Amino acid sequence: MAGNPPHGLGVPDCNRRKGKRMRQHDSRSAGEADGTGERASAVVVGGGLAGVTSALALADAGVEVTLLEGRPRLGGLAFSFQRGELTVDNGQHVYLRCCTAYRWFLDRVEGAHLAPLQDRLDVPVLDAGRHRLGRLRRTALPVPLHLAASLATYPHLSLAERAAVGRAALALKGLDPADPALDNQDFGSWLAAHGQSERAIEALWDLVGVATLNAVAGDASLGLAAMVFKTGLLSEPGAADIGWARVPLGDLHDGLARKALDSAGVRTELRTRVTSLSRQENGRWRVEVPGESVEADCVVLAVPQAEAHDLLPDGAIDDPDRLLAIDTAPILNVHVVYDRKVLKQPFFAALGTPVQWVFDRTEASGLRTGQYLALSQSAAQAEIDAPVAALRERYLPELERLLPAAHGAQVLDFFVTRERTATFAPTPGVGRLRPGAHTHAPGLHLAGAWTATGWPATMEGAVRSGITAARAILTALDRPHDHLFEEAA
């Protein structure tokens, strides 16, 4: 774990062109930190989780780091905003105990206590059509028996379906997610071939898979699905325990992240959009921003795939147009504020209804009276552009159907947040399109959940990519990197 990192060690050289010069601050040189007498510098382009992680990891090793982010905040697509007196997350984000890199990040920014994990996996699952509540729970038994008791009593599947799920889980455990052949198959066809009924797919496999992959089983790569289920459900007994922020995401990914970057000596520039990258004759990199340029020994390009495509120098990766072939998938979030409490549990998942997952965000948002629920709707291609009025007409009756206490409750606010490009689409064949951290250009590395992390587009994947890029740079610079999360190698 990160502990107390060394303080900041300088800033990269900047060449003034025109306009206001970026702010700088004094600190020790990187050479003084490791005894080499040399000053290693890096520019990180992008202030999402991947970029922030890279910047922290490099700064902790004594590299002078400048982080450039075009938005007025850090955090990428996991952020918060104000709506009147409410502090609203753009979408509900959760992580699992197996998300060890994201847990490293939380520790590094001193925010783990603000996003605690469940003691044990416990997911209430409400079937709207059958008016029945079930739970997915784990016990302290070894894998795969840790879920056996829960599956044996899961009321949303028949006895035969539960037995078939068990057999499919054992078959899934034998797959190698890194096998390229799995990337070309879709998960839905594999499930059907292994005796999974439509009901089993809806009530179990898609219940988990849609939320983690942002795609239904038939649209998801078997390789990515196998990775999710093997790691989350079939690796360690507690791997699938769920954690989520009890404060606004901005407090973690912007506020605490900014504080950690400042303490590490990273120069963070917001509202600073990079327009081009080029390698100079002296081997250093020039990063152009409006009004000036920044020079450094190395660069981490931690932006979405289409933006990375536009910034990559010629020859940096093979077939750069493959980045444009990595499709995106949307997530819709529906926000409802009631005048009274209508949900007693912190969250639940739903079947037999358009509603997928519902979270209580009352305390985190700062709401003092009533209750604020957030509905997270993944794989939302059919509704991402629907008018708010149409979504209100659809989802409010569904919430009343799921939550009897919502009958007669007054809706004080109803609004929608839309992330049209929330994740890369985990479609069959996407694995061969995702590049690794290394490029053909010395000193230039890629980061982002869309790179070849082996994970779907999650906060965990983003952090892992940032660590991988930082490790590659530190290895090339012959700098120590034993402070980094090792499993992200």
From TrEMBL:
Q: Which part of the chain is the Amine oxidase domain?
A: 49-474
Give a yes or no for keyword Phosphoprotein in this entry: no
Organism of provenance: Streptomyces typhae
What is the name of the protein in this document?
NAD(P)-binding protein
**Keyword set for this entry?**
Oxidoreductase
Cofactor(s) of this protein: FAD
Output the superkingdom of the source species: Bacteria
For the ligand (FAD), the binding residues are: 274
Give this protein's Gene Ontology molecular function annotations: oxidoreductase activity
Q: Where is this region: Disordered?
A: 1-37
